[in-house]
Structure formats: structure tokens, C-alpha cells
User: Fold these one by one.
Assistant:
Number 1:
Amino acid sequence: VAFNNMASNNSSTFVRGSSANLRKLGEANTLLFDLDDTMAVYRAAFVQKCLYLTIKDHIYAIPDKDAVEQSVLLHQNMHDGGKQKRVLAGMINPTDTRSFWEGFSDYLHRDIQPEDVSFDPSLVRLINFAARNNINVGVISNSTPTAGGRVLSILDDRTGIDLRNSASFLGTGTNRKPKADALQAYQEETGQFVDAGHSAYVGNAVSDLLFARNTGMVPVLIDYTDSSRDISETPQGAQLISDSVVTGCFSALKNHIERMRPHYRRPVSFSVEKALTTGNERCVNRKDITLEPSDETMYHIVNDATSEVMSYVPEIWQSFHDRFSGSDEFSVADID
């Protein structure tokens, strides 16, 4: 793998954010998660079917074709509440928004089957890692208790991870995210104290990032679909992304937290080889490099079997680029 490609954030294995937030995330003693489309990923066809049925309930005369198009459009903007509202505003009276989402939740709860929901295997590894390292894990979701409980039951059946006693489902109450009161509701419901200054909230939507910021937790965006780019289209959204940690997958999140744990910090040694061709002769120059761990040099040595990559701070990549500029090939030859 060429270093200039590895430096790119096009890979889902990146973790980016301010040094302060990255440090706080790495040292967090509590990880709280959103449920829908963060921990649990629903089949697109299933979600669109529930949206389609809800649209038909609220707009009786809408043609089937239009209802299908609007359900797809709503689903595409699930991560951005502002865009959702604008789509809905073109269909229904704004005062009917709550009843619309209540109806959608009813369909989601009534019709969901185990095959409609999936859980990223790297999420399971992250939760198990947290348990081994005394990091508390919980769920705060705007889902209804019935629907959320059903999804967590599927998680338990499939993976053996039971988070039902560490979850708060806010439903259609008054303490929904992004209100900071949602954190208090979680603590009262579960009996678990959360030190917001040493906690992170992981979600996939604007409301999740706002909730984390409103409570003093580190906001973490799981950027499955490059939603950070859409969110950053407005000045407010760009500032929100700047205030958050953005990552493409749970594996990268686990690796970051793992490497920030004190007993994991150790020097990293690897070699770079540069291939040179002169006429008919080809030779290889080898450079051995050792990096000492520090707060400014955060690194992730990760498992090739899970197709993850090794990443360093941009300054180090730039030094590699400057040292090996040109059309010559160079690659990681060995990682200790």
C-alpha cells in the first residue's frame, strides 16, 4: 500500500478531530451510543417501506410513485434533521411532524424482523474491548422503548451482548435528543452515573453531535455514508463537524481508544522500502523507522485481516512524501 494512498481519508479507517477531543476520547471511561443507524443498521428497503406506509397514512391522495420517491428522499437524509424537515414540509403540515414520526416508529416496531437489522462485527469487538478495559457502555436513543428493546434483544440473541439494562429510549417524550436532559433521563432510568467530561457519545446524525456537545461529552460521528460532507455544507454544520471526532468505522474507533490506553503505548517500529530502477538494474533502499508514542503522535497498528491501515498525524505523512517524492514505488515492508 503506497503511503500517499494510506494518508487519504477516503478509507473508512480514519479517525480525525482536534487533538483535545482525540485525547479525551482515548481516555474516556464511558461510551454511549445512538441505536438506529449507528449500532443497528436497518435494510434500506425495510426503512423505505416503513416511510412509504407512513406517507400514505398522512397524505391519502398521494400517488404511489410519488410516495416511493419521497420515502427514498427521506431515507437519504436520515442523518440531517434539517433536511428531513424540509422534505416533510413539502408534503405535510409542520404541526403533523411528530405524529408522522410516531407512525413511522410504530411501523418500524411492528414489522421489524431479525433479518432486517445487522450489527457491524467491529462494533461487537469494540464493546467487548470496552468491557475488558472497564469502559462503561450504554445506549441513549430517541427510539420508543418497545422498538429499541426489540432491537437490543436481537443484538443479545445474535452476539450475547445484553445492553437492555444500560439503555434509555426517549420515544416521543420531552427529553429527546439533542436536549441535554436526555442524559439525566438515562442516569435516572439506568441508575448509572455518567461523568460527561470523561465520556463520548457516538452517533450518525446532527442531533447526536448536538446532544453530545450540549452535555459536554465528546461528539463522535460514525461517518458511514460521508454524511460529514453534507453536514458541513452550512457554517453551523461545518463548526459542528470541527467540534467533533469523525471516524469511518468502529474498528478505527476501537484502535484509537486502544492505542491511547497507557499500557498500550509503546514504540512502533517499521521499515520503508524505496524501489529504484536505473536502466536494466533495480535496487531497493530500506529505511528503518521507530516512532515513540506521545499525545501528538497518535498511531494505530491494526490487523491486516480486517483490511485496516496504519495512520499517523499529517506532519509525518508529509515527511514521508517529501522524502519519497516522485514516481518511484515505496511500501511498508515490515511492521513490528
Number 2:
Amino acid sequence: AAGAAISANRNRRALELVDEALATLDEDADDDGTLTARAVLLRQRGQARSSHACTGGVEDLVRALELHPPHMPGYSQLLALLARESAMLREDRNPTPEGRVLQELNDTGRGFGTLAELAIDAADTGSVSDRCAAADARITLGGVRMRDGDVEHGRPLVERGMAEAIELREPYMEARGAGNLAHFLRELGHHEEGLRVLEESLARHEAWGWAPYHRSFHHQNRAEILFETGDLRQSREVHRRHLARRHGDDKHQHYVQAVEARAAAAMGDAVAARAEAGPSGDRSMLDAHRMDVVQLRTTGLLDAALAEGDLAEALSLSRDVLEQAAL
């Protein structure tokens, strides 16, 4: 039930279900079945917590890794999820509890790249769950390599993970792969190719009737590419048509608002930029556990301050973020 709630983006309900289930387990039991059940529940709790901007789930995932017998079902999924989330965790000048946990993993040779490779190796049964884990891990590993400049080896991994997700009819995973590929193509200056990747994925989601929730990530990436190529009106139109009605406190809302704030600021619409970016003086992004949330929220707030001519706030925000986050 918790897994179904996560798939439906009902993460608060998933947390309730997980906590209820954990309370029924014998804390002293150490048989494989009980250990696996506890590890799976911790994995689900970590996944649900990671959906929110300020409640990271890495500590739950690492605890699950400590408990999960490697020969039991679900181990590859845990490795793949931990690799994905640890790759996105923010780095601070003074390590956070989550950062210290990951550093301990890294010190034992289990950094996020290695975790992804281990997930692929562990996905050896041919089951649907193992195939999903392998695809997920390939998307993560390929994205990490592209981020580090190794496009030659990174892009084929992402594309293979996407192909596997399509074969498995896994909309979230296919969307993640396409979104990651488009993101890194954009960062490399291949904006038109990035748009093509997103549009092809959107066409698949539309043709197969997949939930609109998954498509919203693509529209956000489209808006970002259009912003960077100077098509500000079209960027804002994408937001108006596909993204403006999103509500809630999940991490994606922060991405959406930041892109719209920047486009509005670039058009001189300081009122709209401030409405999307958040109030002047806001430093809540420094509570976020994901580096991309910190970066996007900060740039949205910076552009809003500059559009208002508030140089003092722009400088203060820049100093505060640079003092805490290792950008």
C-alpha cells in the first residue's frame, strides 16, 4: 500500500502507512524475512521523505542498506534508490548528518557511482523489480558521468535505461531518464536536441495515457530551455498552460517556480518574479536537502531581487548561500 501511495505521489499517506507497518514488526527479530520487511519499509520511508524539499530520506536508506540481506528480493532496488538520492544531495561547507552518513559510505568504497554499479550487478534475477532497478541505476550512473563531462560513456547508459523503462512501461523512470538527458544536453549547449528528447517523451506519455504528473517534469525542463535560449514569452506560456496549477510542497514545485521567476524577471515583470520566487529575505532554500533545489531557488530569488533593483538583498543572499553550501 505504501508503494502504491508513493507511485501516486501521495507521499504523506505513504509515510503514515510505513510507520504503521514498522510498529507491527518485532524489534528483536533478526530472521531474513523480518530484516527484509524492515529494510523495505525504511526504503519506502526514505523515498517518500525525499519527495519533499526539506526532509531528505538518505539516513533511512542507509539504515535499510545495513539491514537488507543482499540475497533477498528488493536489494537491487534499494541500491539504485540510494545511488539516485545520494547523487543529488547538497554539499555543505560544514557537513550535515546526511552528508556525514554518505561520507562514511564513500570511505568504504560505496560512493553513489559505485552504488549504481552494485545495483546493476545485483539485478540478476530477470524479475520486473530487478530490471527496473537496473534501468534506474543506469540512468543515475549515466547522468553522473555526463555531469562529470564523460558524455561518451554517460549518454548511452541513460539511453539504455530509458529504453528499458519504455519496455517495462514505467512512466516515472522513462520521464526521469528523458529529463536527465535533456538537462545535460542543455548544460552542454545542445538546447534543440534537449527539446527534441523532451517532446518525443511527451508524445509517448500522451499516446500511452500515462499520468500527467510525469509530464510536468518535462514541461518544466522545456520552460528552462526556452528561458536559456531567450524565448521568454514561450517559456512563461509553458508555465501558464502546464505548470501554474501545481500545488503542494513537493520538491518539483520549487523547480517550477524558480524557472517562472527568472523568466518574469528577464521580461522586467518584477511583481510576477517576486510572487514566484518567494518573499525578499527568504533563506528557506538553505533547509533543502537537494543541491538542485538550493541552486534553482537561489537563482530565482536573485533574479527577483535584481529585477526590483534591490542590490543589497542580492548580495546578502549570495553571501549567505556561498557561506553554507559548497557550490
